Amino acid sequence: MSENAVKNDSALADTAAIGHDAAPDLKTETKNKIDPAKQNPMYHKKVVFVEDENDPVNADAVRGHLEVVGEREYSSTFYEKYIKRVIDVVLSVIGLIVFSPLLAVTAIAIKLDDPGPVIFRQKRISQGNGYFELMKFRSMRLDTPHNVPTHQLENPDMYLLRIGKLIRKLSIDELPQLLNIIKGSMSIVGPRPALWNQEFLIGERDRYGANDVRPGLTGLAQMSGRDELEIPVKAKLDGEYTAALKKSSLSGFLMDVRVFFGSILTVLKRDGVVEGRKDDAEDKTAEDESHEFVGSRQ
After folding, report:
1. Best label site of 86, 110, 192, 274, fewest CB within 10 Å?
2. Residue 218 Cα distances to 59, 85, 187, 279, angstroms
3. pLDDT digit string (tens) for 140-190?
4. Exposed, middle or buried, 115 (CB in 10 Å: 0-12/13-18/19+)?
5. SS3 call for 271
6. Are 263 and 192 in contact (CB under 8 A)?
7. pTM of whole model > 0.90?
8. Percent of the chain with pLDDT strictly greater than 70
9. What b/e readout covers 119-133, taking b as 16+ CB neighbours within 10 angstroms?
10. Cα–Cα distances in Å, from 9 out to 12, 58, 157, 218?
11. What is the pLDDT of residue 292?
12. Is the model more confident about 269 or about 83?
């Protein structure tokens, strides 16, 4: 086995067991940042996913691990580095102001329905394969079974908060990520941030250079199908988005406009959200973008 292989066993030593977004540990709740000592050892590295039947099954239901194949080199365009960043901050601030009544009502509804925190934090993959903590509204009860992703539950609806299904369908649970965007760890548009242990997805995205750019609140894959798409298809779409962003400032801007308005239509039509089990084949490849399991702050 390569010295650069990242095993799930070692990763589990640095974070809590995988569970739902139901039960954050208040004693370990921290600010939305990662301790440098616990940063991803593959930060700024190019990686590939190597299938290995001797490895544990990862969050993508695949046996294998990531290996480093070189240093990551990426130079952003003027649009990505400056204009896109300004647009991100301005739109996020406006969004927080405009949606403040909705944010307040959602927080109150969650608190009244079930005790515990309104917001939970989750370790995700950032630009360049680093780590950051993503924020979401909690949509499931504290007694939801842990260590099982939502799409693998036989009856996930029984664990949802009364407002849970609605905020997922309308993506209201994602609104706290506007704070992630303001802090610079995310963008309005970009590949949805992978869970820290979705090694197959991370490796597939690296094939297309999609981990070079900031993850987003919404992306081309979400506009095209959200939870219904298999990981290789999602990764290829993320690569298509990244290629446009890298090509030139104009192509990057036009792609962002396309994805931004296309995502709004997708949410309004409520397309592509998977709530429970469909069949075994889908469970093995599904990456539940909107309701995945919590990795770091349980």
Report:
1. 86
2. 21, 15, 9, 26
3. 888 877 655 666 677 888 888 999 989 988 889 999 999 999 999 999 999
4. exposed
5. coil
6. no
7. no
8. 75
9. bbbbbbbbbbbbbbb
10. 5, 10, 31, 31
11. 39
12. 83
**Which residues contact residue 112 at a Cβ distance below 8 angstroms, ignoring those fewer than 6 apart?**
none
Q: How far is CA 169 from the centre of its chain?
A: 16
Amino acid present at 160: L
Token pair for 113: 């329905």
- Whole-angstrom distance, CA of residue 129 vs CA of residue 123: 12
Task: Record the tokens describing residue 178, joined without a space.
Answer: 């506007």
How many whole angstroms separate alpha carbon 173 and alpha carbon 107? 10
Q: Is the pLDDT of residue 297 over 90?
A: no
For residue 154, the one-letter residue type is: E
40, 123 contact by CB (below 8 A): no
Q: Tell the residue number behind the tokens 């799409």, with chain if given.
A: 151
Would the pLDDT of 216 be above 90? yes
- Whether 10 has a pLDDT exceeding 80, the answer reads no
Q: Is beta strand 131-137 parallel, antiparallel or unpaired with respect to 119-125?
A: antiparallel
E strand or H helix at 130: none
Cα Rg of the chain, angstroms? 18
188-201 confidence digits (pLDDT tens):
999 999 999 999 99
